[in-house]
């Protein structure tokens, strides 16, 4: 661009001799073009014997024309693997199709090194279609091959990673499945297998598990003390997981044992309080809420004595549709403080009446677009809407209610219902 | 799934003639036989098929376990013979399929009466004084060559064939034969072929057997042809004036003539 005068001009114009040089270039002989082309040229007889080869290819191979022409076959230039490929793919396909394009092969040079190349061959035929010779061009593919090797390596690495991830996922799935099974068995062990059959009394229960991956902390039990009296309890320990399960286990067996010695519900909660305080000392306090009751058959009624420690109030759904809340306000958490106070309550169940104990998973479920607490009042109206009902129907209705909460229900929920069949009932198990 | 469809069976030639089953080897499909097929069809019934995994076969029927041993390929041969209810057929196997034919004959002697082994090799790798012509490293190199070539294989072939107006009969089906070999399938076939050792099976061959070899064959050198000939009692060895590993392509007339003369000598 140092031309005097500057300004745009035809390239070469005004420079004497340039045109002549350009013409001379164009007149480069075909022979020169063949010999010094930037690719290798090769002509072979049908049996592969090399009849003609250009200087470029000889240079790449490090061989002289005399060593090659008439003495070597094309496949002699290849690595052994390449020879096999040539015999099994290249030669047959060339013979059938008459043309091959861009086949990756490695040439073996005189120094023993490998030269990656891309090979294109055509079969020259006579006028009547007989194959005469094979023309081949050879391109240096060192860079390209390195790049392809990189791609292949990356592909293999990706496949390996995918396999490893898939294996890990399968393993995790299996672990999860095993854990779920273990948790389900463990959770099951914290609850009675079935409620015992108490003559003349209807009972029903339900346990809703919020997560199959997490042990819940709700519990209940019901068992006969003697011919007339039956004990029951229902509660909720603090926390979740294995610690909660251990606490649940201790709570359940403490209450069961204590109730066999003393039928006073308040005293039982006191015993549990002592046991929990004794077991969980220092900086790991563990506590629970619980309602404990003893019922006694008196004539055609059930006399129920109940005590609560920090637990939601039990409901009584009367045969006439009234719903009573058994007031146990003031009862304190069990296992939190040495001198905890527990509040007693009494009620009499007549035929058609149903007592309901539940944990706060039910009333603390979130409902509606604003995710409000379901709440005690809603539960009372729901129960009132079911009257007259019985334990079985009540629990079934509540199960539907829980299902309806969907993901608004994120806590475990335990339900225990006890009732006397209405007078019109003709036998056990019918519409109660 | 019918075997017909699975193995892409094609039957041509004289229905009344003796049945000749042409079995392709590693690296290609039944198209390998297209230059000898017309001559063979003149007086024989010719059966062509593709191994499962090759050419126009049903790739979904391919199972790595089955096709990781030559027995799997031999079962293909036998199942094709059963499908067509062949009796006393001549099985012509190229390259590795020469050995597959031996195994198939042992499985179904009533269906396969005689064998033609085209450029056979019972063992490609040198071992304890036996010369197969290759080392285990050579075979690994071949597998590398397969890897380097499948990337552009199918994409490259289609325009090549379409730009081939002087041989229109080679039409588009070719794009789906050689070219469409699934690289995973090709790798398994390559390993099975080149790592196999069938030398023990040769001594048990009792069928009339013709061995065809080429003067110059980089895969099955003359020592190997002589070894096979010596190992199979009563076999005939014919050395064709041809080079390469595929005389059915490089010397189709001579190959067909040798097979025809062998078949006609079998009588009826």
Our Rg estimate of chain A from Cα atoms comes to: 46 Å
**What can be said about the biggest beta sheet of chain B?**
7 strands, mixed
> Would you tell me the overall average pLDDT of chain B?
86
Helical/strand content category of chain B = alpha/beta
The helix-strand sequence of chain A is HHEEHHHEEEHEEEHHEEEEEEHEEHHE
CATH topology of the largest domain in chain A: Phosphatase 2c, domain 1
Please identify which CATH superfamily of the largest domain in chain A we are dealing with. PPM-type phosphatase domain
Q: How would you describe the shape of chain A?
A: rod-shaped
Number of strands of chain A: 17
**Oligomeric state:** heterodimer
Low-pLDDT runs of chain B? 151-177
Strand % of chain B is 15-25%
Q: Please, how many helices of chain A?
A: 11
Average predicted confidence as pLDDT of chain A: 88
How helical, in percent, are the residues of chain B? 25-40%
CATH level 3 topology of the domain at 3-121 and 198-265 in chain B: Rossmann fold
Give a count of the beta strands of chain B, DSSP E runs of length 2 or more: 7
Task: Give an overview of the whole structure.
The complex is a heterodimer of chains A (432) and B (268). By secondary structure, chain A is of the alpha+beta class. Chain A folds into 2 domains: 123 residues, Beta-Lactamase (2-Layer Sandwich); 229 residues, PPM-type phosphatase domain (Phosphatase 2c, domain 1, 4-Layer Sandwich), CATH 3.60.40. In chain A, 37% of the residues lie in helices and 26% in strands. Chain A has 11 helices and 17 strands. In chain A, strands 2-1-5-4-3 form a 5-stranded antiparallel β-sheet, sandwiched between helices. A 5-stranded antiparallel β-sheet of chain A has the order 6-17-14-11-12. In chain A, strands 7-8-9-10-13 form a 5-stranded antiparallel β-sheet. In chain A, a hairpin with a 5-residue loop joins strand 4 and strand 5. In chain A, helix 7 packs across helix 8. Chain A starts with 17 loop residues before the first helix and ends in a 13-residue tail after the last strand. The N terminus and C terminus of chain A are likely disordered. Chain B is an alpha/beta fold and 268 residues long. Chain B has a domain of 187 residues: Alpha/Beta hydrolase fold, catalytic domain (Rossmann fold), CATH 3.40.50. Chain B is 39% helix and 17% strand. Chain B has 11 helices and 7 strands. Chain B has a 7-stranded mixed β-sheet with strand order 1-3-2-4-5-6-7, with helices on both faces. The two termini of chain B are 34 Å apart. About 10% of the residues of chain B have low confidence. Chains A and B meet through helix 5, strand 3 and helix 6 of A and helix 5 and helix 6 of B.
